[in-house]
Write a structure and sequence with these properties.
By secondary structure, the chain is an alpha/beta fold. It has eight helices and 14 strands. The chain folds into two domains: about 160 residues, Rossmann fold (3-Layer(aba) Sandwich); about 140 residues, Rossmann fold, CATH 3.40.50. It has a seven-stranded mixed sheet, sandwiched between helices. Helix 5 links the parallel strand 8 and strand 9. It starts with 5 loop residues before the first strand and ends in a 14-residue tail after the last helix.
């Protein structure tokens, strides 16, 4: 399959990222009309011939999540009915990923439902980044290419000067990610034990590891209310941390998060453009994952391995 048969389209969730991906690989963004009828129903029309083409549809299922998910499903269906040879759904951010198991009675496994919907719509392949949990790849019976934003973070952090860096997980579940950062950056390793009191509030209980006088790097995959990272930052500062930064792959910041970030507990929040970010004058640094996703699209199109994209330059 040659690059001449490659077509890239975008929904409305994160068009700037789609344009940046296309620019990074020297490809035009395909022309498609994606809009809504007066009653709110989504209308899609692909405005160019894609018969026999290798089609990539870029759409993060960020808020409004349901609307963007349905938009993606309809775009996939439109491409399938237009006789695309292969359809890859590119989800820089995979919404509903936190609902990946039955942790209470009578609740759904929505991450699996979304996987079923994507396949039923006609997706032949999934390209995504930093899933909330690795097992979501197993929810699909089609190939899944799972990328990591960590090389983008490592390249940025390598240019910074830290006195005594400690990679710290804000909860037990993130220890594997924190250990990977500590290993690559030659940093110490720590963890904050937390207790969630509600959907928007988190209480940090204790700190594991030496943090006094250290520069702390909190690592996490997603933040919405910033409750976890600010609670962790608060207790780390109480234990003598010199500075606290956070590297978070996906930021979906609501009003709670904005108020918490204004508190000054986090010196810098480093994130990616997997979802649209309005920094609002907050200490937020946005790194682009467009080149990473662009290279992955080219490699999938030419049936090459994407493993080399995990290699980190300069380490």
């Amino acid at each position: 399959m040659s690059e001449s048969r490659l077509k890239i389209f975008s929904g409305n969730s994160n068009r700037p990222l789609a344009e940046a991906i296309c620019k990074s690989i020297g490809m035009p963004l395909g022309e498609a009309t994606v809009t809504s009828f007066p009653d709110g129903e989504t209308f899609v029309k692909i405005n160019e011939n894609i018969r026999g083409q290798d089609v990539y549809i870029i759409q993060s299922t960020c808020p409004p999540s349901n609307h963007h998910l349905v938009e993606l499903l309809i775009m996939i269906d439109a491409a399938r009915r237009a006789s695309a040879q292969r359809i890859t759904a590119v989800l820089p951010f995979y919404g509903y990923a936190r609902q990946d198991r039955k942790d209470q009675p009578r609740v759904p496994i929505t991450a699996k439902l979304v996987a079923n919907l994507l396949v039923a719509a006609g997706a032949n392949r999934i390209l995504t980044m930093d899933l909330h949990s690795q097992q979501i790849q197993g929810f699909f019976d089609i190939p899944v290419d799972h990328l990591y934003a960590s090389p983008v973070f490592f390249e940025y952090l390598a240019k910074r000067q830290f006195g005594n860096l400690v990679a710290c997980s804000p909860d037990v579940g993130g220890m594997k990610m924190a250990a990977a950062y500590a290993d690559v950056l030659g940093a110490g390793l720590g963890m904050v034990a937390k207790k969630r009191t509600s959907a928007t509030n988190v209480e940090a209980i204790s700190v594991v590891g030496e943090v006094a006088g250290c520069d702390i790097l909190l690592v996490d995959d997603i933040t919405e209310t910033a409750g976890t990272i600010t609670a962790a930052a608060k207790i780390l500062r109480e234990h003598g941390a010199r500075s606290v930064r956070a590297a978070v792959s996906h930021c979906i910041l609501n009003e709670h998060a904005i108020e918490r970030l204004k508190s000054g507990l986090i010196d810098e929040l480093i994130t990616t453009d997997s979802t649209p970010i309005d920094t609002k004058g907050l200490p937020i640094t946005v790194l682009s994952v467009a080149p990473l996703l662009g290279q992955a699209i080219l490699r999938i199109n030419s049936n090459e391995s994407v493993t080399s994209l995990f290699r980190i330059k300069g380490f």
